[in-house]
Design goal:
Blueprint lengths: L7 H9 L6 H9 L20 E4 L2 E3 L2 H11 L6 E5 L5 H10 L4 E6 L2 H13 L5 E5 L12 E6 L8 H6 E12 L3 E9 L2 E10 L14
Parallel strand pairs: 3-4, 3-6, 4-5, 6-7
Antiparallel strand pairs: 1-2, 7-8, 8-9
Helix pairs in contact: 2-4
Length: 216
């Protein structure tokens, strides 16, 4: 895909502020048309670095957060990645750009209408390396496990055990945890052991599901 002109000043600022550093993340952000994932009335705000409502109580993440999570995951070409919380499909598209045609993004969305909308947009934009599944993302997606990388776009009370189980040894996961006060956690699995590191404080929509919040 061609570079999106409107994204250039946004990415330049994110580089200056240290949110994005690697060329693969920078290029992915520059190529994914964020307006394509937004409701009609919000397309004019596509290149503002802020979360925006996509309906059903959900949001498209701010551009800096998408970039920062991609950097933390250290994504590589050809990897298989699980996303929990498809939302608009924008974040999955950015990751799909990075892992390339030989990679795969499996993204799980609990709200059927959002899953269907994202599936259509991703297909229209040519992201054939993304599979959208409608279901409970807190349980992961066992049929295609294990995954090289996992990231979660909603905050739960803890790191769901099924996601840890479905992460490859040597794999990395980024997930927000907490309710009123949330922390973005980088989790690495090494030799069967789990190592956690706090990245920053964040504000995400709640992670609803069997291994998340039952209700919020």
């Amino acid at each position: 895909m061609e570079v999106i002109k409107e994204m250039i000043p946004v990415v330049e600022r994110l580089k200056r502020e240290g949110y994005v550093k690697s060329e693969k993340v920078i290029q992915a952000l520059l190529k994914v048309p964020r307006e394509g994932f937004l409701p009609e009335g919000l397309k004019e705000y596509a290149y503002l670095d802020t979360p925006l409502s996509i309906g059903y109580g959900q949001t498209i993440s701010a551009i800096h957060m998408v970039g920062m999570m991609c950097e933390a995951l250290d994504l590589k070409e050809g990897q298989k990645v699980l996303e929990v919380g498809t939302g608009s499909g924008y974040h999955a598209a950015v990751v799909a750009e990075i892992v390339g045609k030989d990679g795969l993004v499996v993204t799980v969305e609990r709200i059927p209408e959002l899953a269907e909308r994202a599936r259509k947009v991703l297909k229209k934009l040519g992201y054939d390396n993304v599979i959208v599944v409608c279901g409970d993302g807190t349980l992961g997606y066992p049929p295609l496990a294990p995954y090289d990388r996992i990231y979660v776009t909603a905050a739960g009370p803890k790191v769901p055990k099924p996601l840890i189980e479905q992460l490859k040894d040597g794999g990395k996961m980024v997930i927000p945890v907490g309710k009123d006060l949330q922390e973005l956690i980088l989790l690495e699995k090494k030799g069967g052991k789990i190592f956690k590191k706090k990245l920053c404080d964040v504000a995400f929509v709640p992670l609803i599901g069997e291994e998340g919040w039952k209700e919020y």
